[in-house]
Amino acid sequence: MSKRDPNSPARKPAPAKPAAQAALLGVGLDNTDGHKRITTGEQFALVGGSAETHERMAETTIKTFEELKRRDKRLENVDPRELAEILHKSTPR
What is the pTM for the complete model shown? Predict the structure, then answer.
């Protein structure tokens, strides 16, 4: 067993592992009117797009979070394949 140098600073405990974080990012690239559209929420950001595209992204995002809540899941721990299925199902046709 090694002795600690009494003049060296005490060791700090390792920091706790931060909680998992996740967010959705929607980017619309079809804007031709020069209007800057930005919609943000606690776990999402939607930027750009025409008025129609931005509205579709917003609707998809809202329906996606509603479905996650219905399934009692959170964005940070849902399986990526399941999230893809939910996004596909939530996209307006």
Answer: 0.77
